[in-house]
Amino acid sequence: MESNLNKKIKTIYNATIISMNKSMEIIEDAFITIENDKITTLGKGKPTNTENLINANGKIIMPGFINAHTHLPMTLYRGIADDLPLHTWLEEHIWPAEAKYTNEKNVRKGSKLGLAEMIKTGTTTFADMYFFSDAIAEETEKAGMRAVMGEAILDFPTNSYKKTAEAISKAVNFIEKWKSSNLINPALIFHSTYTVQKETLLTIKELAKKHNVRLHTHASETQKEVKLVKDAQQLNPIEYLNSLGLLKQGLTAAHCVWTTESDWKLFAQNNTSVAHCPSSNLKLGSGIAPIPQMLKAGVNIAIGTDGCASNNNLDMVEEMRLTALLHKGTSLDPTVIPAKEALKMATINGAKALGLEKQIGSIEVGKQADLLLIDTQNTFMHPIFDYYSAIVYSMNSGCIDTVLVNGKVLMQGKELTTLDEVHSVKVK
């Protein structure tokens, strides 16, 4: 493919477009025109415009993947404490390591590593929960990626802040600083209902209303968490969030493994989205979220990788395939979560979870040009009888050739354009 993708107006033709729009339209022998950061034309056949034509050589064009839950700088802790249950892993290994190594310099280092990994595996937007959020946002903006993020709030000291009031102040300052960015979407991020007190949760709710931002948290990840919250509040985590009015504030709840039918009804009634993180939940022995049941209840389900300390990668292609296969096996029903549904979870459902469905998540005129070009010229993607099946079950992230965000090329011909390849990272 020609190397002129960064020119102001470009028309990519000779492609198959997987739109992920409401009608799930697939356009073969298609072209797409991008002007500045938006999609301006979609069509079939050869475009009438002859300026800056780019031959896709039969590649698939689809929306970029949306990673609905991660902890980007935790690439630095990849493999530091494997094969342990969550609370042992977190309290005895991760939190001590973070106390020793988490600082702005290392956060930038881990962010760059994670951003490079996500671009190479096709993620164009991610939702992040971590500390030193300004540093993460700055590195994300430099790399050209899109994100929903904010300073993670807990009611105990971290290397980023010592008191809750300081955490809240940093979170509000982040919103004010980044609210006009075209790539960074500020949100209010709190760790969980067992690490954040009621007074803090109510403050977060009021700030979300005041600043018109979304919320993001962990919820019902383990049986131990549910018991801790029930013992303290006489309600499970979802019931407790609902009692405080937090489900109504555009909340994305990550994990939701140990949830009930009444919880799913609350999610659906309040337009609360769930970020499903199957690899992390399996690796930590937390369990398997009841995703098919939530889908039947009308809950919007997105997919997240979680952080590299518990996954151990940020590969949405792998996570999407696992989502489709895992629930077939546990339900003994091969029709559960078909390929088309899994791809929706990784794209348009993720956009809905982050409140960005009017901007990204599908290929439609007027939306931002956050796109992937997939090279099908390899043995394991032939023949293609069904495009959704090929993308979800056959493709791996090595098939991703080109990545664009806001029409800007972040990777072309599998070579990064906004970041250097990362070959070695040391934590110190």
What does this protein structure show overall?
- This protein is an alpha/beta fold and 428 residues long.
- It has two domains: 110 residues, Urease, subunit C, domain 1 (Roll); 289 residues, TIM Barrel.
- 35% of the residues lie in helices and 21% in strands.
- It contains 14 helices and 19 strands.
- Strands 1, 2, 3, 4, 5, 16, 17, 18 and 19 form a nine-stranded mixed sheet that branches. The chain has a six-stranded parallel sheet with strand order 9-11-12-13-14-15. Strands 6-7-8-10 form a four-stranded parallel sheet.
- Helix 8 links the parallel strand 13 and strand 14.
- Helix 2 packs parallel to helix 3 and helix 12 packs across helix 14.
- The longest helix has 17 residues.
Summarize the structure.
With 428 residues, this protein is an alpha/beta fold. It folds into two domains: 9-63 and 362-416, Urease, subunit C, domain 1 (Roll), CATH 2.30.40.10; 65-353, Metal-dependent hydrolases (TIM Barrel), CATH 3.20.20.
Broad CATH class of the largest domain? Alpha Beta
Unreliably modeled segments: none
Assembly status:
single chain
Shape type: globular
- How many distinct beta strands? 19
The fraction of residues in strands falls at 15-25%
CA radius of gyration: 21 Å
What name does the CATH topology of the largest domain carry? Answer: TIM Barrel
How widely separated are the two ends?
A: 41 Å
- Structural class, please? alpha/beta
Helix content: 25-40%
CATH superfamily of the largest domain: Metal-dependent hydrolases
If helices are DSSP runs of H or I spanning 4 or more residues, what is the number of helices? 14
* Biggest sheet details: 9 strands, mixed
**Architecture of the largest domain, CATH level 2?**
Alpha-Beta Barrel
Number of domains: 2
Mean pLDDT: 95
